[in-house]
Amino acid sequence: MASIALPVSGQLQLRLGIVFALAVSVGNVIGSGIMGTPGLVANQVPVAWMVIGLWALGGLHVMLSANVASELITKLPKAGGTYVPVRAAFGESIGLLCGWTDWLSNTAAIAALSVACATFLGAIFPALAAHQAPVAAGFALTIIAINWPGVREGQIVQTAGSIIKVGLIVGVIAVAFLAEPIPVSQVVSRAGAAMNDAAPAVGFFAVIAAYQMIYGAYTGWHAPILFVEEDANAARNLPRAMGVSILLVTAIYVALNLSLLNALDMTALRGSDLPVALVIENAFGRSGGVLVALLAIVIVVVAINAIVMGTARILYGMARDGLFLPVAMRVNKGGTPHIALAITAVVAVPLIFSGAFVFLFKLTAALAIFAFFLFELSLFALRRQQPDLYRPFRAIGYPLLPALVCLLDLGLLIAFIAADPISGVYMAGLIAVCVPVGFILHSRRRAGELSTPASA
Which residue, 132, 197, 264, 428, could crosslink 268 as a Cys pair with Cβ 3.0–4.6 Å? Predict the structure, then answer.
């Protein structure tokens, strides 16, 4: 059994293991969006076997990505996330772009999910609906406060919360399979005129639109790599945790869609914005609305906790590599990068009150896909640049399978920009900013390295 290092103030600590890695991956992936995504996907692709096939394809897609991530993160076991191998392979400028995109998108997600929690709580207690922003800030700050003392507190919340979350969703699946099917007429009365629309023909762009939503529902599977320096046996645990969690999430997503098709049929599924809510309300009556809101809050809070924990590690890693303020490297006695956590809070809370997180999502959506494409591409660059580097895990099926997932992500990136060209403009603008900044950082580091022998 691997020994656990004693807590040391000022540095990340070996307190985590495979159970946490599984919990943070599953907890980060499954969010409140799964309650509405099945209906949106079915509306784009109203063919049952295609719906199930696309959800299964999403699981296969991220499994291929995890195959690449497992080699990269065990080869370069440094906190910071996807930017670490990108910086090693392509330099400071692209590393800076990748790291900042990752941190900004995660900080915006904290704000957005906190607002979602406030919305669901307002459905239970209507008096709170008029105070959405303060309630949302309360959710975000509470979760940040839980994580402030140390990694152990965040670990407990994440592990227990993920178990509860999975149990609740499995319960929803069972209800959808076992309960009496909901009459289409009942769905029509709730959905209104939308149900009168004929099912659209399934075209290429409809499939792409559906798959983009599905791919979004799988994002977050790579959360364990942010904790690589805190896992007592990372080279063994992280590849296994990512693989098992992706299989589990894929099984849940496929089973949930099958159960919804059983409870609603395709026509009814297309007409429902929140098919999971419809199933629960049908089974439990008027109290179903409260149960839906509570389910959503649990799902979202666990996801926020995972993002809060990981986002602090992104800033910590960037600061250590000279891509952010050195103060963000400070770690408290409990093992939390508390200054990085505070900086994240200082940015996330104003985003909640301003609503600017919506803009940030639009700004970083295409960049996030671009950054992950670079992450996967860095595997090939590092294999060429550092062929003798020790690799505890070697990507299965290299070079064919890694090349396949690179092509898939490149295709998604092109499709995303084609659907939203302004994202391409933002991408070009941020690259234009990061390139000179990265060049300056590289020049300063080189100057420091050259001056060290003379000053010694």
Answer: 264
Q: Which long-range contacts (CB under 8 A, 24 or more apart) does 200-205 make?
A: 200/43, 200/44, 200/46, 202/45, 202/46, 202/47, 202/50
Query: Which pLDDT tens digit goes with each residue over 100-133?
Result: 888 888 898 899 899 989 989 998 899 998 899 9
d(CA 185, CA 398): 52
For residue 5, tell me if it sits in a domain. no
Convert the pLDDT of each residue in 362-401 to its tens digit: 666 667 788 889 999 999 999 999 888 888 899 999 999 9
Q: Supply the DSSP string of 306-337, one letter for each residue.
A: HHHHHHHHHHHHHHHTTSS-GGGG---TTS--
Q: Pick the closest to residue 115 from 99, 98, 100, 128 (CA basis).
A: 128
402 prior amide bond cis, ω within 30: no
Q: Residue 165: which of 302, 5, 363, 305 has the closest Cα?
A: 302
Q: Biggest alpha carbon distance in the chain?
A: 82
User: What is the residue-wise DSSP string for 185-200?
Assistant: HHHHHHHGGGGGSPPP
Number of domains in the chain: 1
pTM of this structure = 0.87
Q: Is residue 455 part of a domain?
A: no
**What's 236's domain CATH number?**
1.20.1740.10
Residue 199 lies in a domain: yes
The set of residues, in sequence order, having a beta carbon less than 8 Å from that of 339 and lying 6+ positions away, is 327, 328, 329, 330
What range defines the domain where residue 315 resides? 18-446
Cβ partners under 8 Å of residue 395, min gap 6: 67, 68, 70, 71, 379, 401, 402
How far is CA 273 from each of CA 38, 52, 268, 349, rounded to the nearest angstrom?
A: 9, 18, 10, 29
Give long-range contacts, CB 8 A cutoff, 24+ apart: 98-103: 98/371, 98/374, 98/375, 99/314, 99/317, 99/318, 99/323, 100/318, 100/430, 100/434, 101/364, 101/367, 101/368, 101/370, 101/371, 101/430, 102/314, 102/368, 102/371, 103/311, 103/314, 103/315, 103/318, 103/344
Angle at 318 between CA 314 and CA 324, to 5 degrees: 120
